[in-house]
Amino acid sequence: MLDKVESNAILDRLPAHLQQYIKPQNYDDYSPINHAVWRYVMRKNVDYLSKVAHESYLDGLKQTGISIDHIPNMYGMNRILKEIGWAAVAVDGFIPPAAFMEFQAFNVLVIASDIRQLEHIEYTPAPDIIHEGAGHAPIIANPEYAEYLRRFGEIGCKAISSAKDYEMYEAIRHLSIIKEAEDTPQQEIEEAEKKVDYLQNNMGKPSEMAQIRNLHWWTVEYGLIGSLEDPKIYGAGLLSSIGESAWCMTDKVKKIPYSIEACKQEFDITKPQPQLYVTPDFAHLSSVLEEFANKMALRKGGLEGIQKLIDSKNLGTIELSTGLQISGDFSKVIEHDGKPIYIQTSGKTALSHREKELVGHSVKNHPNGFGSPIGSLKGINLAIEDMSPRDLRAYDIYEGEKIEFEFEGGIKVKGEIITGTRNLQGKIIIISLKDCTVTYGEEILFKPEWGKYDMAIGKEVISAFAGPADNLSFDLINHKTSTTTIKSKSTPEREELASLYASVRNIREGKNAKFSLDAALELVKKHHPKDWLLFVEIYELAVGKDEKLAKEALSNLQDVKSRRPDISHLIDGGISLINGQLVS
């Protein structure tokens, strides 16, 4: 996909399975109305957020080169972002949480390049360029926060999902798309909301991914920083919402000290949040993240970690104490005294060491699954991985020797040793056998006629995480969604309105316009009386210069307010902003 976008050194590092989500921004597709929406939101935000946002926000707007007047060209933004070690890519709406976080691990901001409709100017449940570009990008100019974001991605993409997490992702993606789309029947929205509600109430025990996604939401998206009495905004969802950024500062929103307990707090993306978490500083975010990571299978491994992978029904990896990594779909574990003594995958499996696939142990070598005992030999205090060459010879663990191992827990391996594979530290990590039989009581786990048997060596499972150890081991270019974002319909009426917005913008920028502000005002009054934002823009240009025109524009805005009371606060906000700037 990178051959279709302007790349740079940071983007060039992205693996192919992440590149599959990238799409061109198609900057020319933004209409003059889209640019007016961006400008209104940004002017309101900068005016208001200068008082309530973390100080990094305004500094970040300057550092990241984000314009208040025009939607940013993110691939132009990349030339500035690279100075702080980051980059940006365009995607189509929500992407799977694991992929989103992995992009962060590569210091890449994922930006949904669509922009909200004028009707949803205050808030949209769908990710858009206002949320991503104006929310996420400025705050990463703070080095401490940027490192938190990168580290969060690094840990988060290893979190194990449940089988239901992807179904929830698809349901939320679908709901966000149809709520943002115009003319969606209310019944369709209600059915989608019911599905999301049902899934939220029937997810079972929250997975690691569900919990870390909660932490992401209450920090990266909806975080406050400072004291409970005087918090500042740093979360992108608040920074990009002119409605919720004001709402969140009222007493109607409960403020809670941020802690690991936030991982248990679910959220609804379609509604304003009833509570928010306040971190004293960015360093505290990293402390909580590490506290959560210490509870993950990534760091604990063991029987629980393997069971999480089995329950996830997704590709995952376990790492043994020798550093050997086994990647595949885990389907079975045999336990003894609370410890795993045998693991089994089904289907394509690969073996790696230090995230690099071992030669001769690709999915082509293990197409039908992989099984191996885990642990120490019965009656021998010294684990195989800790044996010196002399120890190995003494126990007949040697090429050409016929052996009969019995592991603690009762797994028996009988066969002739072909060879062994060592890691860089000299520890045996795989023993290959022929004419091999593996049994557990009366159960036969491997038969000689199945071919060569590769036995993994490791006395314990030290880690279990989502995804493969080596991304090149598997074909991960397989992402398909059941829905795509819905573009606004092009109509003659909308095209005419867009041309009026373009003309007014040209006047503001000192370019040759097709006609005057007076003509633009007359056409809006006559053909587009429900529109309000263009009246605001005309008022802005006329006030202080052409009082008659300004008065007429203001009169029309009052008419729109009487007909559309639901947006009167938006009109008042625009007028106040203009009048306030005149005073200052």
TrEMBL record:
CDD domains assigned: arom_aa_hydroxylase
One example GO MF annotation: oxidoreductase activity, acting on paired donors, with incorporation or reduction of molecular oxygen, reduced pteridine as one donor, and incorporation of one atom of oxygen
Listed GO biological process terms: aromatic amino acid metabolic process
Domain Biopterin-dependent aromatic amino acid hydroxylase family profile: from-to ranges: 1-342
UniProt keyword list: Iron, Metal-binding, Monooxygenase, Oxidoreductase
Gene3D superfamilies documented for this protein: 1.20.58.690, Aromatic amino acid hydroxylase (1.10.800.10)
Binding residues for Fe cation: H131, H136, E221
Keyword Chloroplast applies: no
The UniProt record lists the keyword Metal-binding: yes
One Pfam family from the record: Biopterin_H
Cofactor(s) listed: Fe(2+)
Membership in a protein family: Belongs to the biopterin-dependent aromatic amino acid hydroxylase family.
NCBIfam families: PRK14056.1
Protein name: Phenylalanine 4-monooxygenase
